[in-house]
Design brief:
Length: 495
C-alpha cells in the first residue's frame, strides 16, 4: 500500500475542497452546509510522480442542534479516529476567516496525542492581504503552517512538498519501506470496481461492511445517512488467487421531485457517476418491501449506462419465516387442488419462485443473476462474491468471428425480421468490437430497419449460445458500404 495523508479538522473549514484540490478532480462533495462529509473518502493520488492515498474525513466536533449521543455523529467521529490511526501524515485544516476557535484547539490536542506528524493548512487565504492572519494558528502548537486557498489553488506546492517528505519511502517494488504491501500499477489495473446502488435504507452500507468484515462505512436506520460516494478497497483469496475489489458505497437514489436540498441533488449525481465508472453494479433491493416503482427507476440507470449487474435481495432473514409459512400454506392449497384462495394470488414459497418474480418485474434487467443475502447474518455473501466473479469473467469473453456469424445466421433463419415499407432487413457480417460490455457490430443493408424488438431477440439468442450472464449485449447495426459496381454503371451511362 502507498503512504496515507489524512485531512482532518472541525466542520466547514474546507476539508473536502482541499481534498479535491490535491486530488486534482472533484471527488468529495463540497457544499455550504456543514457536516456534509460523514464517511472516510479516499483516493489514490499522485503528486509530482509520487503516489499516495489521500483521505477526507468528517468534521470533528458538534454542529448546532447536534447531540453527542446521536448515532450518526458517533459513527462519523469513529471514522475520523480510524483515519487518524491509519495515516502517516495529517493535514489539519483551519479557516483564516474565522481565526482560531476553541474547537480548533481541541482538535489540535487530539492530534498531538496521536504522535503523527501534523501540518496546518490555513484555508481561504484568497489574497495576500490576509496571508499574515495565518500566522496566528501557530498557537495550536505545530511548527509548520501553510496558508492555502482551495478555491484558487494557492499555496499547495509547499504544503505537499512538506507532506510527501514525511511519508515512508517506497522501495523499488512499490512497497513502503517500513510497513505495507506492494502497490504496483499492475495490481491496480486488475482491481474490479463494484458500485453498490439502490434506493435509501435498503442496506447498501451494511452489505459493504459485511463483505469487508469491518465498520468501514456508517450504518444507520435513518435514510440518507450516506451522502457521498465512498470507495472501499478489499481483497478476497479464492483457490490461491487474490482478487482486488473496490466497493463503491453510494447515496440512496431518491426521486428527484422528493429531493429536499441541493445536497441531495449532488449526491444523486455522484451516484450516477459511480455507476458510469464501475465495472459491475450491485443493485440492492429490500426483501420486505419487494420491488417498488422507484427500484425500477434505479435499475433503469444501470441499463442506461450498459453496465453488468448482479441483483441482491437483502434482508432475506427478515422474511425467511414468512416464506416457510407460505410454503406450508401452498402445500395445503395444492392438496385441495386450488390455485387461488379467496382471490389471493399464489404465494411464493421458494427462493427460485421469488427470483423468477424479481426478473419478471425487472424484465429490462433480466440478464442479471439474483442473489438472496442478509448483511446482518452473513447469509449467502459467499454466493454474492461467486456471482460477481462469474459475471466479471463473462465480461472478458470474446466470441470468434466465424462462430458468431454462424450463430446469428441460425437465429435469423429461425425468425426472419419483419419487413417495413416493402423492405426487409438483411444481415451480411458480424464481429465483436469490444468487451465490457460485449459490443457486436452488425453489417446490414439498412440500419433503420433494425428494430429494438428484433435486437432483443438476437441478444437473447446470443445469450443462450454463449452465456454472457449478468452482462448487457450491445448490438450496433451499420449499413454496409455500397459496392463500386453501381458507380461504374452510372459512369457508363453518362458517357
Amino acid at each position: 500500500m502507498s503512504g496515507i495523508i489524512a485531512i482532518v479538522g472541525r466542520p466547514n473549514v474546507g476539508k473536502s475542497a482541499i481534498f479535491n484540490r490535491i486530488a486534482g478532480k472533484r471527488i468529495a462533495i463540497v457544499h455550504d452546509e456543514p457536516g456534509v462529509t460523514r464517511d472516510r473518502i479516499s483516493a489514490e493520488v499522485e503528486w509530482r510522480g509520487q503516489p499516495f492515498t489521500l483521505v477526507d474525513t468528517g468534521g470533528i466536533g458538534l454542529l448546532r442542534g447536534e447531540k453527542a449521543k446521536d448515532a450518526i455523529i458517533q459513527a462519523a467521529l469513529a471514522q475520523v479516529e480510524l483515519a487518524i490511526e491509519a495515516a502517516h501524515v495529517i493535514i489539519l485544516a483551519t479557516n483564516v476567516q474565522e481565526g482560531t476557535v476553541p474547537l480548533d484547539r481541541e482538535v489540535a490536542e487530539r492530534l498531538r496525542t496521536s504522535g503523527k506528524p501534523v501540518l496546518v493548512a490555513v484555508n481561504k487565504v484568497d489574497h495576500h492581504r490576509i496571508e499574515s492572519g495565518a500566522m496566528e494558528f501557530a498557537e495550536l502548537g505545530f511548527e509548520k503552517i501553510f496558508p492555502v486557498s482551495a478555491i484558487h489553488g494557492l499555496g499547495f506546492e509547499p504544503l505537499m512538498d512538506a507532506a510527501l517528505a514525511l511519508l515512508p519511502p517506497l522501495t523499488e517494488d512499490g512497497a513502503l519501506g517500513s510497513t505495507g504491501e506492494p502497490a504496483t500499477r499492475q495490481a491496480q489495473s486488475s482491481t474490479l470496481k463494484l458500485a453498490v446502488i439502490g434506493r435509501p435504507n435498503v442496506g447498501k452500507s451494511s452489505l459493504i461492511n459485511a463483505l469487508t468484515q469491518s465498520e468501514r462505512v456508517i450504518v444507520s436506520p435513518i435514510p440518507g445517512t450516506t451522502r457521498d460516494a465512498v470507495d472501499v478497497p478489499f481483497e478476497v483469496e479464492t483457490e490461491g488467487v487474490r482478487q482486488r475489489y473496490i466497493l463503491i458505497d453510494t447515496a440512496g437514489v431518491r426521486q428527484e421531485r422528493r429531493m429536499d436540498s441541493s445536497l441531495e441533488f449532488f449526491s444523486l449525481k455522484r451516484t450516477e457517476a459511480s455507476i458510469a465508472r464501475c465495472d459491475l453494479a450491485i443493485l440492492v433491493l429490500d426483501a420486505e418491501a419487494g420491488i417498488t416503482a422507484h427500484d425500477k427507476k434505479v435499475a433503469g440507470k444501470i441499463v442506461e449506462e450498459k453496465k453488468a449487474c448482479v441483483v441482491v435481495i437483502n434482508k432475506w432473514d427478515l422474511v425467511g419465516a414468512n416464506v416457510v409459512q407460505a410454503r406450508k400454506e401452498e402445500i395445503d392449497r395444492r392438496r385441495q387442488k386450488e390455485s387461488r384462495v379467496r382471490g389471493r394470488e399464489k404465494k411464493m414459497t421458494t427462493l427460485a419462485e421469488f427470483g423468477q418474480w424479481v426478473q419478471e418485474h425487472l424484465f429490462f434487467l433480466d440478464y442479471a443473476p439474483v442473489i438472496f443475502t442478509s448483511a446482518t447474518s452473513g447469509f449467502h455473501l459467499d454466493r454474492l462474491l461467486e456471482a460477481v466473479r462469474y459475471v466479471a469473467s463473462q465480461l472478458k469473453q470474446r466470441i470468434p468471428t466465424a462462430l458468431l456469424n454462424r450463430t446469428l445466421n441460425d437465429a435469423v433463419e429461425r425468425r426472419q425480421p419483419v419487413s417495413s415499407a416493402g423492405h426487409r432487413l438483411k444481415f451480411f457480417y458480424a464481429t465483436q468490437v469490444s468487451l465490457a460490455p460485449p459490443t457486436i457490430l452488425l453489417f446490414v443493408n439498412r440500419d433503420e430497419l433494425f428494430s429494438d424488438q428484433y435486437g432483443k431477440y438476437l441478444a437473447g439468442e446470443l445469450r443462450r449460445a454463449f452465456g454472457f450472464e449478468g452482462c448487457p449485449i450491445v448490438l450496433v447495426p451499420k449499413p454496409r458500404s455500397k459496392t463500386v459496381e453501381p458507380i461504374r454503371r452510372r459512369r457508363r451511362r453518362s458517357n
